[in-house]
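Supplementary Methods S3. Complex input for the zinc ion-bound model.
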Amino acid sequence: MISERGRFCAICGAMDEVLLDNLCETCYKKEHPLEIELLKSLNVAICTDCGELRVLSTRIDPYVREESLEEVIREVARSAVLSKFHSGDPYDVEFEDDIKNDKIMNYGVKEFELRTKITLQPHEEFSPFEKDFITRLKMKRTICNDCSQYKSGYFEAILQVRAYKRKLTDDELDRFENLINTMMKQYEGAKLSYILDMEVVPDGITAQVSTKLLASNLAREIQAITAGKLSLAYELKTTKRDGTEVYQNTYLVRLPEFGKDDIIEYEKDIWKIRAINDDQMRLESLTNRKERKIVRKRVENSAKKLNDVLFPREYMLVSTEGQTVVIMAMDNYENFDDNLERLPLNKEVGSTIKGFLLDEKNYYTE
Ligand SMILES: [Zn+2]
Ligand SMILES: [Zn+2]
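Predicted complex, serialized as C-alpha cells:
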C-alpha cells in the first residue's frame, strides 16, 4: 500500500487528497466496495401453543433460555444478520427493531423490522464505511411437531397404580394424584412432557404419559412413598414402514394388600400395622400393645384384613385402678371395665381414645 500526498488520483485525477493504491477515497471505495451480504429477510416460525421458535432450521426453546420471547427473537435475528457478515477488520454495529412482546403471537402482524447499521474502518487513512439496512423478520405462526403430537393424542407409555387384592383408599388416591400433579409442575415447559389423560377411580390410577422416561420417573416416585412393587410391560403398538417395532410401555405400581394403619388378624391376635417396607412389617398388638417385626410375605400370606368389618368408635378413659380401667363409649355413654394393658400407652384419665368394636369386643387404636 502506498499512501502519500502531493500526487493525484489515478481515476479522477483529484489532487491533494489522501491516496490509497493511487486512488482517492471516493474512487477507492467505488473500486473496493464493502463485501457485506445483507440479510434482507428471515423466516421466524413460532409455535402458538408452546412458543418454540424455528429460525434457519434451528429449534429454540424460549423456556430453556429464560428470557422473554421478544428478547429471544431479537438475539436470534441479530446473530443471523451477523452470521452473514465476515470481516477481518474491527467494526461497530448498531441495531434497532420494532419487535414487541404483545405482537409476537398476533396473526395480524406479518413481520417485524430489524435495522442494522454497520460501521467499519479498514483503512485509517479514510473515513469509515457505513452500511445501513433493514432485515424483515417474516413471522409464521404454526404448531410445532411436539405440540401437534400432543394434539393428535400421541403417548408412549401408560402409568398404572393398582393395589393387590383391594381397591385404593381415598387417601391413597389423593396422595398419588397430588404427587403426580406436583411432579408435572417441574416438567412445565419441558418438551414432550405431558399427561394426556388421567383416570382416578377406586380401582386405581391410569394415565397416558407422553414419554417412557416421564412415566418411569412418576412410577418410581410413587413406588418410593408406598411399599409398592414396580413392574414394566411392553406391548407392540405398531410396526413402522422400515420394520422397526414401536412398543408402548406400561409402568405398573402395585400397592401391597396391607397398608400402614390397617387393622389385621394374624396368628389369632388383632394388630394394627405401624410400618411397612419392602420386606418387613411392624405390627402392634391391640391386646397387649407389644410390637413385632415380621417378614412381610408371611403376614401377606396368612393375615386377614378387618378394616371393612369393624365398627369405629370413640371412648373416654374414665378412671384407672391398678390394671383395671373404666371406659365410657361416647356413642351411648355406656361404662365398662377393661384391662390397662389393652390401652394405648400414656393415656390419662379424661382423655379420648379412638378404637372400634369387633365381634362385640372393644379395641383401642390411638
Ligand atoms: Zn478519485
Ligand atoms: Zn409447540
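The longest strand covers residues 129-142. The two ends are 99 Å apart (CA to CA).
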